[in-house]
Records
---
Amino acid sequence: MLLKLFTKIVSNLLLWIFVTTILILLILMPRGDNSFGNTHSRMEMTQEYEKNITTFSWEKYKKNITDLFTYAKQNKSLGETEYGLSVEYEVWRYMKKSIYIILPSFIISFFAGILKGIYDFKMGNRRFRIFGEKITSFFLSVPDFFIVIAIQIGIMALIDLGLPHINVYGSETFSNKLLATIFLSIYPTFYIARITEMYLSSESGQDYVRTAIGKGTSNKKIVYMHMLSNCWVKVIGQLNTLMLYILSNLFIVEFLTGYRGGAYRFYQAFHVPKKFSIGSEMEIEIPVVIEFVIVFTAFVLLTKIVSDSIQSALLAREASAEK
């Protein structure tokens, strides 16, 4: 069992290295150069930039790769920002804010989702099932940005009616972090709820469930002690997907709430003007983008390792219990 787990971890690590390397190589692809002499006219500079950005140069591509790895090897860093701060400090400064909402959202989504999934399963076809599976389906089908905006408008309306003031936008106060955490948890929570309900429904037809019912075992005990225990391995296997949903929704939440975290800074580093203009920075912040790519993919890798480790432990415990 340990050997199998070790093999999974090594394969995940190798896959992470491969994917991250491919992404870094894509980021290092050469782009147009806007450093022209003063003798050029505006039209000449625009035409030259448009020509450069559509012409691929292997020499420049090789130079980008060589310069990056040479600098990183010599300075133990990927460089500095335009404000003289190291790229590592810049990424950590923003990423730390995101971690404050990513980790709570991950924990809340997982456990709240399981509880909601159990509730959906127990509601079944009862009269008021609208509060069960239908609510889950609603939140899974409505775009996240619509829900976030609706809640923000609702909070501001309540403030006008006398609710104590709450900072809806920003990233410095506790209310900012709390709201961002709630917003980030919405879709992942209902995703886990749907998965949990689905796995419980598949277990409901098993022989051991019918046997337990025949013996007069309470429904609560059947669900929590028998059915759910048999679903844990499958539910834990969704941790990696859960983290992917959280990271993919991170920018939407940070953008709509004014939360200046890692995803928002990543967007800034990747953003360049759509049209050439004299004096404008037309290059992406390559070192910053690379650092964020490494960090975000590392989150997925660590989640996958934790998921595989927990699954391995659960399977080992089941195997020992059967002996």
---
Amino acid sequence: MLYKIEALTRVHKGRTILDIPALTIHSGQIYSLIGPNGAGKTTLLHLLAFLDIPDSGMITFRSTPVRYIEKSLLPLRRQVVLIDQYPILFTGSVWKNLEFGLSVRKIERKRRKPLIEEALELVGMQDFSHAEAHKLSGGETKRVALARALVVQPEVLLCDEPTANVDVENSGIILDILEKINREQKISIIFATHSHSQAHRLSLHTLILKDGRLSGLPRDNIFTATLLGQVEDRMVCRLQNDIRITVPAGKSLPKAVIVRLFLNPEYIVLIREREADAGRENLLPGTVMMIAAENGRIRITVDIDISVHIFLSQSEYAKNRPFIGEKVFLSIDDRAITIE
């Protein structure tokens, strides 16, 4: 166990920014932190970096409760490094920026050179060691900030929007680096992002924040749909790729023809191909594309010509054991469908 959070709150000017009853984060893994602006992502990262103090509750780090006195916090801060969304580099060369953290930690001068060279090479910035840090591009600045964090060899790396305001090339490089250091150096990584695709690519665990609270229900399954009309007692909705879903005609529906349709993953059932009942309403064939742990459950992404996400409990997953590439059916209960 890396972190354990119990009954944690953080309040600012009378507003509760974070309210997390319980959360456990394990060592050596990558966690993504998703949520809209103002959801509390940055606040949570600062608490995990021991740069902020909760108003109530407890954070345990490596099985030891955190004590908020400077003498206790300093050694914790040397194990955990936070890269801000807009990192600020010091005046001077890239080399000096990386050397600063080593100097603060009283690393001998003769040991600094190979550590700096290795960190710069890791982020592909070895040719910039003597460049003026303040003249770098946004993507180059992010990569140097990443090297500056890695040079001190942290056990935990926290990243606040690591690819925000970065071009596609540098964004890809940064994601590759995070993946590599977790795989090869076993550095635990927690990164905040707005991108579900980045979260799915890098992490097996996704923490979803909404209004300062952890949510187990990401609104991933949101699609634009066209209301085609009524067939008997049901209304037909057409999604992209001519996927058709029906809802009871008596269900409250907007007057618009083009609508937003949300499929609640809590009411979508995965059915093995051999067990499918062809007469069932809203039974859609697909292929399992991704399986990942998330907030104590198993998220499964099924391609039915669009990607649909469902959740299984740990016990349900252990019982059924669907596998990537398996042909399955999704049964979408009427309760799963919300039209706006």
---
Amino acid sequence: MSDVTILFGRPHAPQFAEDRFEIEALAAEELGIEAYAIPLDPVVNGEPERALRRLPRARGRRWLYRGWMLSEEEYSALFEAMQDRGEELVVDPESFAEATYMPNYVPLLGDWTAPTRWTEGEDIREAWEVALELGPPPWIVKDHVKSAKERWYRACFVPEGSGFEDFAEVCDQLLQVRGDRFERGFVVRKYLELATLPGWSSEKRRVTDEHRLVFWEGRLVAHAPYLDVESELSNPGQFEFLGQVLGSPFFTADVARLAGGGYTVIEINDGGSSVLPEQLDPRDLYRVVAV
């Protein structure tokens, strides 16, 4: 029996995106790992204690959060509410923030990731000024946590030859898409051309060679293609260093093969809110957690 209990968190409202946490709940049950679910709405609304009322009586458990993405403030409040009941979350708020907010982890990655600049706040002119430090576009624009890559040409990608007005339109669209979940400021990254997968890509859709890596207590413990495609990650050991440069006990890293050869780290994410790829059996992860 594991000394870690899984804490699943979901909003009350139906979601269009499938989170696959039901599959993980079945995996935990199969492996004999305790797991419970809480509603996230009270957490987001500033009442994390109310969200924890459904949990069984406290007995010094260590909880591993698996759920929808929270802000640093929301996660910290959940962490403190768990402490108040005499228990703890495996990932502390500082580690959560390090693996969630790009300005925190980009300096740790060095040349393994794209050149990056960022701002605090929503001033688009300031974002333009720091973007120019990267040289001319193409660039990628996101907030400190997420992009709007589902609206690639309208709210994410700034093509070659773009001027301030073009850039401002992308930034404005990003603000609209992210709404009240826009996190802290703009992040602008130099666009790197990624390798595509023959047989999966077409004129209408480029499928890039991306992989999600899972780290637990400093070790690379699982990985799979980010999309449900046939692709093998060559030499995954080259990324083991990430487990040493990041302090979080549970995080994921998204990496991609570059068109010109080699790999780049696209982003780091808190492990608690990272969706496992289709080809990654959650039992493989939970067997490690259960040790």
